Amino acid sequence: MTPSIPGPRRTPGRGRHAFAATWWGQAWVTALEDSTLDSGRLSRGRTYARQGMVGPVTVAPGQVKAAVQGSRPRPYRSAVHVPVLTDAQWDTLLDTIAARAGHLAALLDGEMPAELVDDARHAGVPLLPQPTELDPECSCPDWGYPCKHAAALCYAIASTIDADPFVVFALRGRGREEVLAQLRARRTATQAASMPPAPAGLPAAGAYAAWAALAKDTPPLPEPPEPASHTAALPTTPPPSTGLSTADLERLMTDTAARAARLLTGDTTSLYLTQREDAARIAASDCGPEWFHHLIQNTGARPTAFARLARAWRYGGPPGITVAEQPHAPDPTAMTAARSALTEALTEMTTTPVALRAWRNRLTLTGHGIQLRLGPDTRWYPYLQDDDGDWWPAAPADGDPVAALTSVWQQTQR
Fold it and tell me: Which residues of the chain have pLDDT under 50?
């Protein structure tokens, strides 16, 4: 989920730690200030934050971003990236929280227990970001690391982290509801493990012998039928008080039957989707404007961000969602090889020199509004930039970066 958060709810005072009142909020500010030796840019960033130059902040897995007003009329697009935790690290962190009832109680009260952070760190899980983990990005021409706009964003988000420690969890990859659901599952599993064991059954050899004797006189089961699309109508109309329509329920039945058919073929992709990913999957199936509107409302997403996710799913499925939201540091060899291949191809496509700018898993054709992103499936995903400066998935992914570029090149030349 990518909630949009207004700027700080209070006006920060003077001083380095005026932006955060809690120890974990101050830890965020300290990580920012320890990540650079440029005190001048930090000072200007604090001034920008105090003056309300930071617009609404969006928190997503691995990043926080906002428009920051600078010296030019049009705001700059600033972001700060933080590495998301691996699944193994999340298991360790959740086990650490579940081990002490007080940890969860404190989190629900809006507190970040210092003991929890210490326990997680000793287990090898960095919950609060370290100075080396903050990775700023900005559309301004200042190559400072961070620039004053990204620094202002970091200071502005500190009060939000103060008020809700679950923002730190969201930056590390999982939001409040997902964390709480997984903690409840752990508690249920612990309670089940404490129950008395079930009575012992028959020895396996004896059970098999009894089944074999019975099977001799039992006809074999028929082969399962070929999966077919569900087209049966509902036996009755839903009660008016439910707010559900017959057409909506039948559409869901058809979708469920199609997913079940894919499961029978071994495609388990849909078993591991989050609510937001599943909503993007449905939206990508041309569900119609009314459903699209309801999906946006029920996921709490911004319309533009949700539309981008739906398009990312249409062109790449779950890996497409990952590529749209989570930049990562790929194998440098793959990036170098792709850059060389694209440079050679561009000499044949145009007589005008084209600069290629590399950042993490992204190669951007400067001045052409084209970007190629290397996904976790080693395929290249083409993106185009719109008039507002936002990047949108533009075509299906391809294992060949030149083929991915070719699929969108003509669109920018018209």
Answer: 1-14
